[in-house]
Amino acid sequence: MHWHSNADELQYYIQGKARMTVFKPGPKARTFNYQAGDVGYVPVGNFHYVQNIGDEKVIFLEIFKSNHFADISLAQWIAMTPKEVVKSVLNLSDAFLEHVKKESNPVVKYPGFEMPSAKGTPQNVKYFKNFNYKVKNPPCNAAKEH
């Protein structure tokens, strides 16, 4: 999980199937599924992560309107905050905190900890029940070519 402090993020999915969850300030979150040809969007400052939910590698292009890339992961934030504060607020063990890195690490996997499988996880569709994000009459063949 990470966020960008200086620009919105626009994504173009090239290969694979992915699920992205975006957390807005306050108790608001949205989860979306993507595949090749889809476009994702994350407003500046919103926490988010992308999870591979398919059988092949996920490849997507990230685009930022900025002259430099800036992000911070939740792991980096935890690693740079005094352990006593993190332990008192998040109730994390010393063993867990020893494996958190200050360096950027886009793929996070800790020994002895597995994320639950995304397969079968319901998408957050209660807010988008009748929302069809697919273009019915695309203006060009670009989506078919990828």
Task: Produce a short descriptive summary.
The chain is α+β, with helices and mostly antiparallel strands and 146 residues long. It contains 4 helices and 8 strands; from the N terminus they run ββββββββαααα. Mean pLDDT is 77; it is low at 121-135.
Keywords:
alpha+beta, single chain
How would you describe this structure to a colleague?
With 146 residues, the protein is an alpha+beta fold. Helix content is 16%, strand content 29%. The chain has helices spanning 74-80, 83-90, 94-98, 142-145, and strands at 2-3, 9-15, 17-24, 28-35, 39-42, 47-52, 59-63, 72-73. The two termini are 28 Å apart. Mean pLDDT is 77; it is low at 121-135.
Secondary structure layout plus pairing:
Blueprint: E1 2-3, E2 9-15, E3 17-24, E4 28-35, E5 39-42, E6 47-52, E7 59-63, E8 72-73, H1 74-80, H2 83-90, H3 94-98, H4 142-145
Antiparallel strand pairs: 1-8, 2-5, 2-7, 3-4, 3-6
Oligomer: single chain
What's the rounded overall pLDDT mean? 77
Strand content: 25-35%
Return the structural class: alpha+beta
Cα radius of gyration in angstroms: 17 Å
What's the SSE pattern? EEEEEEEEHHHH
Q: Count the beta strands.
A: 8
- The shape, in one word, is globular
- Biggest sheet strand order reads 5-2-7
Low-confidence stretches: 121-135
What is the terminal-to-terminal distance?
Answer: 28 Å
How many separate helices?
Answer: 4
Largest sheet: 3 strands, antiparallel
Bin the helical content.
Answer: 10-25%
